[in-house]
Amino acid sequence: MKKINLYISLLAILLLAGCDYNEEHFSGYDNNLVTDVIAYTGEYTGEYPDAGYFTDRTSLTTAVDKMLKSIYLYNDKNSTAKVSILYGESTPGYSLPKEDYSLKAEDYDSMGKEAGQPGEHDYFDASMDVNGYLIDFVTKKYAGLAVGDIVTIYYLFNEADGKKETLSESFKKENYGWDKTELNSFTANYYYTLIADDYKEMGNGANEPGEKGYFTSAMNIDGYLGSFLRMQYPYAIAEKTAVVVYNYLEKGAVITKTSVYEFDGTNWNSYDPYAPVMTVTTKIADMKYDGSNWSLNLLIGGSVEVTIKKNELLYLIEWVKNNKYAYWIDDLNEFYYGSAAKWGEVNNNYSNWRDKDPNKEYTSLSDDQLQALMDKRISEGFASHVLPALYSDPNPELSYDVSYNVYRGNRAGWNIVSFMYDKDKKVFYEIAAPAKKR
Q1: What is the DSSP letter of 99?
Q2: 274 near 186, Cβ under 8 Å?
Q3: pLDDT digits (tens, 9 = 90+) for 321-358
Q4: pTM of the predicted model, to two decimals?
Q5: 387 near 306, Cβ under 8 Å?
């Protein structure tokens, strides 16, 4: 029993001695609150949908939440993550107007036949408000069309030299009425109408195009026309397009049809210029943890990795010297942001900050409050002084992920804070607060 008591007494002495040592050499050590706020950066390793990429933010968020929870069984609120992930975005293809119409004489007349009006000579000229006349016209003629529909009007325009040209304007119906719009119309690189000899070159046998000079549903039209285009345009380069006009037998009558093709560098393939275009790129899913689940904060086009070293910290020291001189120590140190350029670190030593505090504002703060101030200050410093000095033409679609090494404090080691650029305000702004880098 005496031996047990002796061991307990020795253990107590060691623990007390340890406390004295920490207090002597690490001021504030015992008051540091240890949390597990993480800042994860990595690639998505979970399962993708069958297409091989995500197309909506809800399913992406669910999948990334599942992945991060499998990596971190426990982490604190306000943890962040930046996950590289494949994401597909659908953009409209080329547009076709709901209606197109060429103005006739009676249409010009309906706009007025007096001097200086369209009906005087059945054309427009530079003295007339063309858009005003045409908006009035489509408002009456296409009153039954739905909001979002587009119409294109072709009209004669008398140039200053007296030459008359056919021009067009497109208008879109909005909730408030009709407004001029730009129609994203398709224009092919090549246009070709087949002639009799072209059909013959494709074969004169039974059920071949040259037999009767037209195609039928039994023929591989894309195969024939793809081969024809390779011979017709041997020097075409990838992404060039071609429109081919040809004869086609439909319900016993020969009609004219049109097909569109795009060259991939080797073959001409059937192409629908009006179909939506799916573009798949690697995005950065910027995630934030609320204490229960990971939610999507931003879906970013990519990221730029920035590592803070001596030269970057010198920007902060120079600013403090010129604007917060009382916090400036020397050409390598300051205690407004905590720059310690000699070591390429950010000093978060609480006792150092309190000792060097010129206004004694830090002494009244707890360690947690002082850490929060340090985080706020260093984030502002990177956004206001370092990043603008490093990037004269920042990309507003990218995340700028700033890594910096922290000396002491409750997050000693590498930390990370992330920013994006507001091109309208011309400023960097924080999107993920400082956190321990994982």
Answers
A1: E
A2: yes
A3: 999 999 999 999 999 999 999 999 999 999 999 998 89
A4: 0.51
A5: yes
